[in-house]
Amino acid sequence: xxxxxxxxxxxxxxxxxxxxxxxxxxxxxxxxxxxxxxxxxxxxxxxxxxxxxxxxxxxxxxxxxxxxxxxxxxxxxxxxxxxxxxxxxxxxxxxxxxxxxxxxxxxxxxxxxxxxxxxxxxxxxxxxxxxxxxxxxxxxxxxxxxxxxxxxxxxxxxxxxxxxxxxxxxxxxxxxxxxxxxxxxxxxxxxxxxxxxxxxxxxxxxxxxxxxxxxxxxxxxxxxxxxxxxxxxxxxxxxxxxxxxxxxxxxxxxxxxxxxxxxxxxxxxxxxxxxxxxxxxxxxxxxxxxxxxxxxxxxxxxxxxxxxxxxxxxxxxxxxxxxxxxxxxxxxxxxxxxxxxxxxxxxxxxxxxxxxxxxxxxxxxxxxxxxxxxxxxxxxxxxxxxxxxxxxxxxxxxxxxxxxxxxxxxxxxxxxxxxxxxxxxxxxxxxxxxxxxxxxxxxxxxxxxxxxxxxxxxxxxxxxxxxxxxxxxxxxxxxxxxxxxxxxxxxxxxxxxxxxxxxxxxxxxxxxxxxxxxxxxxxxxxxxxxxxxxxxxxx
Length: 539
Prior knowledge:
Layout: E1 2-6, H1 13-27, E2 33-36, H2 46-50, H3 64-69, E3 78-80, H4 88-92, E4 98-101, E5 104-106, E6 110-115, E7 118-123, H5 129-132, H6 146-149, H7 155-161, E8 170-173, H8 186-192, H9 197-201, H10 208-217, E9 221-224, E10 231-236, E11 248-253, H11 260-263, E12 267-269, E13 280-282, H12 284-292, H13 322-331, H14 366-375, H15 380-390, H16 399-405, E14 465-467, E15 488-489, E16 496-497, H17 519-533
Parallel strand pairs: 1-2, 2-3, 3-5, 7-8, 8-9, 9-11, 10-14
Antiparallel strand pairs: 1-12, 4-5, 6-7, 6-13, 10-11, 15-16
C-alpha cells in the first residue's frame, strides 16, 4: 500500500491534491492514502478564520471550503491531525475524530484508526507545559488566551495513548518528539536551521510528551511537521527483556507542501492486509480504551495528574483486556467500518457574499453525538455547555497559581514537565509567530518565512541507526544540564557503538539554574528577522 505523507498544508488543499494527480500522470504513482501532520486549516467560513491563531494578515480562506461544501471531493482518502494553526472551533466539534468533509478524516485530540489492516495513530496540537494538565475547557468564542490553549496537548490524551498494547504501524504528531534530532543528520539540520542550535544542544527542542509516547509506542513510522524542514532519523529502541524482539522507528519530519519532485520522496510502501477492505475502520482496542478512561474526562481549567502507581490512586492501569476488545467487536457486530456520516454544521464560505462579521458559535456535531451514544462516552462539548449553563466552570481564579505549580513538579511524575522549553521551537522564521507570553498583543505585527526558497535537499534514507540510551529518557528535570550519552556510528558501517560515560555533557546556552533558557534572547533575534522581512510574501 502506498501512503503519501504531507507536512503543513495550511489550507492549500487544491495544491496538495493537484500535486498528487501530477505524480500519477508523470510517474504513474498513485497513493492509496494521504496523511497530513497538522496545520491542515479546515476553514469553512469567515467565523472559522477568527478562530485560527494566526496574525490577521495571514487569515486567508484558502480552498478547504470547496471540499466542505461538496463542490470538490478529495481524490484520495485523507487522514490528518491538528496543529497550532487550525480552525479550532471546527476541529473542537470532533474531539474523538470524524469527517470534516467527504473522504477527509480528522483523528481528534488523539486517535487510532485502521486502513487496510494498517494501524494509524496520532495526537493533535503542540505541547505547552502550562496547559498540559488542564482539561479541554475551551469553547468559542475564544479570547486571546483560549484561542491558543485550545490546540495545546493535554495529559489525558497522552495517558490514553499510553494504554495501547498492540503494535502501531504509523503515528503522527505535529511537533517533533524531543531528542529525535540525535538520531539523524544533526549537522545538516543545524546547517539548514541554525537557530535550532541552542535547543538541540540543550536537548529542549520538541515535545517531551511526544517523546514519552515514542518510547512507549515504538511505532514503525513516526511523522511530524511544525518546524518546516525535512529531517529523517532512525531510532533503535532498547528492549525491556531478553524475550522482547528489538523494535525501531523510522522518523520523518515534513516540510510545507512541496513541489511534485519532493512529494515523490514522501510516499512510502507499507505492508497491509490484502484481504482488508478499502474503508477506514475503527480500532477496537482504542475504542475499548476510550470506554475505560471515560471517567477521567475533565472540562475545567483545574490542573490534575493522570492516575499512577504512587499510592494515591486505586486504579492506575487503564489498558484493556482481550475480553474488553471482544466486547467492542460484538457491539459493532464485527463491522468496524467508520460510517460516512459527514454533516454540514456551519454555513459555507460564499466568495460572492462575504460575511466578515460572522461570529463563531459553540456547536455540537451530530457525528460526535452518534459516536458517544454508540460507545457510552462523554460528549465533551455537551459537558462544556452544561458547565457553562450551570455556572460550574471551575479553576479560572486558580490559573495563575496552577501555572506556577507547573514549574515545581516531581521528577518522578512522567506526565509533568517542569519547564516549557518546547515553546522555543516556535521561534522559527519559517513558522507563523505568536507571542505565547503576551495577553492582548497586536498579532498583525508578526511575520513568517523570510525566505520562500526550499531548504537544500538531503537524503531521507534512514541510515543513522542509534540505540536510545536511558539518559535520553524524558523526565521533569530534562531542562537542566545532563550527561546524555550520545551513540555514534563507526565509519560507514551501521554497527552501533557506545561512547564512554565520560562523554561531554550537553550544555545549555544562556540558561539559568531553573532550566529557563535564553528565550527572550532568541525572541529578540527572531523579531529582528521578522521586522526585516515583514513585507515579504510568504507561502
